[in-house]
Design goal:
Elements (H helix, E strand, L loop, with lengths): L2 E10 L9 E5 L2 E8 L2 E6 L13 E3 L2 E3 L6 E3 L5 E3 L16 H11 L8 E2 L1 E4 L2 E9 L2
Length: 137
């Protein structure tokens, strides 16, 4: 199936405060956007571990840390800095004597933390655009 790239408007650049993450719905995709001084970054707003909204996490030093399980992602590339961290008691579920809890724990521990999609950004005048790829069917 052929893929088409297109520039899609996200917001007015003036809406973006320094180091304050935002979430915008663009073409049915939630997009995490953050401005760091003169740079603007856009990644998919879903954690690569369990799909939680990244804009609700803590942003610092070019990393967004997911509020759900603590996985961290580089906002410039979408790469994983460190995987999800299961806090107690979740980290002890896989050794539970209760079969259902043990199975749940084993499933949780087996979920890989994957990188998140990065969107190239472009500023035209006061508008922020991202490059999105869509499959044409």
């Amino acid at each position: 199936m052929p893929t088409i790239e297109k520039l899609v408007r996200v917001c007015n650049v003036g809406e973006l405060d320094h180091d304050k993450p935002h979430c915008y719905r663009v073409e049915n995709v939630d997009v995490f956007v953050v401005r760091h001084w003169d740079k603007i970054y856009a990644i998919e707003n879903r954690c690569g571990h369990a799909g939680a909204a990244l804009h609700r996490g803590e942003y610092t030093d070019g990393l967004i840390v997911c509020a759900l399980h603590g996985a961290a992602f580089h906002v410039d590339t979408g790469a994983v800095e460190w995987p999800a961290i299961l806090p107690p008691p979740m980290s002890k579920y896989s050794s539970s004597e209760n079969l259902r809890i043990r199975q749940f724990g084993e499933l949780l521990e087996g979920i890989e933390t994957l990188p998140v999609k990065r969107f190239p950004v472009k500023v035209e005048g006061d508008d922020l655009f991202i490059m999105m790829k869509t499959e044409q069917g």
